Amino acid sequence: MHRAPIVLTATALGLAATLGFQPHHAESAAPTATAAASASSPSSSSSSSSSSSSSSSSSSSKTVTGDAVGTQYGDVQLKVTIADGKITDITPVRLPSDDPKSGEISSYAAPLLRQSALSRQSANVDAVSGATFTSNGYRAALQSALDKAGFQAAAGSPAA
Question: Residue 70: beta bridge partners?
Answer without folding.
Answer: 75
